[in-house]
Amino acid sequence: MSKERKLLKIICFLCVLDAIACLIFGGITLAGMGLLDASDVVTVGGIDFGLQAWAVIFGIWGIVSGVFYLIFAGAGIRGANTPRKIGPFRAMSLIAVIFAVVGMLLGVALDGAGSDTVLYVVSIVFAIACFVLAGKVKEQAER
Question: Which of 8, 38, 47, 83 has the greatest count of CB atoms below 10 A from its CB?
Fold first, then answer.
């Protein structure tokens, strides 16, 4: 196994931890939304949203992205083990970047730069690293 495949596998196992953290933060956000004041408003792009509604959106996004990152990590581990199956994972890594950027923007709009926003920054770094490593693994498979 090449060092790129080993590194990809390690990053994918770290993505599993990231996915679990996203699921936990999403669940905590949904569970705690009842504690928010219903009269608080968040303005995004000139549109006012109730803070509770924004928390629901962010919580659901955290859970959806956590599930996606679990699938993403599984595909990466599979691609690292069998390099000829790395193609779909490379495309998924671009989708993972989009998921992370949207999650980060939602987090900043909800409560500024908190721990959940840092989690999405880590997700962006992992997704970009996976995209680069998947390209190298694909090149190795084509030789």
Answer: 8
